[in-house]
Amino acid sequence: MTAAFTVGTLNIWGRWADWPARRAALASCFPQPGPDVLLLQEVRHDALGDQAEELAELLGYPEQVTVEGHRNDDGSEGLAMLSRLPLTGVHHEALPTSDPPRKVIVASIACAEESVTIVCGHTVAVPEHVRQEQVEAFLKRAGERVVLGADLNDTPDRVAPLLAEAALTDALDGHEAPTWPMNEQTFGTAWRETLGHAPQFSLERRRLDYLLSRGLEVQAAGVDELQCDGGPHASDHALVWARYGLAGASR
What we know:
It is built from 5 helices and 13 strands. The protein is an alpha+beta fold.
């Protein structure tokens, strides 16, 4: 039983760019001991292997849950939830319809004998009206004590107005510290090498990743760019993390 716990959310960018080099960077730069529960987006399962299993072993997470179907080409891509705490009630739910479809992973952990719901998600970037529907649906998760972690593909100025209605707290308190892209040149080069043309959208650095909560106290939070000694970043996204305790409980 834990009196406080840490959650992290990270879009790992599938196998784009040099995945072996990025995986090595992740092993070197990942904070220790790291979040108790790690929520991952853009996790690949293909002929090269299962990234969720790979990262669970690499980072020391005994519990692993995945949901696939986000993208299907030569494999599948979706979400993963890795945990050092027991997960219960694990299931997935659909977000409003998009092509490809998007789902969320839902599970519960125990904190000081109370149940806390943890939700991992990733909304589409375009079309905008579908993204808005998915963000709104994601934020409407019920529960007295809940943590939502996601790449929402939207900036704090657009997300913040929805939080008060949902009684949710942003772990970063609305700060706009950029979480994507970590390196514009690396992202652009990988895009061109994979798709044969330059990105047709802005690579201006911005915040897209969130940890949102209800019924919990944010004891500490931050953004980790996962880069060591000027080497490659572990992903095109930063890790967002937060440490939580029950609201009103002593630390």
